[in-house]
Amino acid sequence: MTSSRDPLTVEPRFVLVFDFCSSTLILEDLLRNESEDRWRNLLIDIKRFLWDERPRLHFEIYKFIGDGWILLFPLDFPQTEFFLFLRRLCDAYDRSFKKRVRPVLTTRIPNVGITFGLDRGRLIRVVMDDHTEYLGRPLNVASRLQASIRDNDQNPQGKLLMSKPAFEQLRQHVPKGNKIYTVKRKLKNISGGDSYRCIKLHLHE
Q1: CA 91 to CA 34: how far, in whole Å?
Q2: What is the pTM of this model?
Q3: SS3 category, 189
Q4: Residue 197 in this model has a pLDDT that exceeds 90
């Protein structure tokens, strides 16, 4: 429960949403052979990675969403590190998956990896019963972008969809050799989302 006396501010942020591909298939396989603890241990590995990276990039680990996380970055974070961070995150997931999960899988799981969505804008920060929550369009756009990477793409892992405002601030830091594509996506329940222009980046090219 919140009241009119609870703190409320409007803050600019980069919002990064990332998700593990095929997580439902993976967990179903692990449950069949009673190895679900392997997935828990992988999640712990990724959480530790994020905590280790926080001092370098100054992001807030806002929310765990079941098979991924939402991270919030201030606009003045070390932007030269951003795409290298995403690569390190992909590599950390690959290492943990190969060590903890793959040896016990009984079926072949396609598209193992991470997909990303990124937007930039103003969030409403509100404290409710001593718990911080954020509201605003950038959260919704980043989430929809992450989910729509799979549209017309049979190999979505290791790819990032960015809104144009986010890309314009980060474009000078895209590593050489990474191809940039302008694409259109339909983003549900987003104003202007019927034909939303965004930027697609393959992180491992």
Answers
A1: 26
A2: 0.94
A3: coil
A4: yes
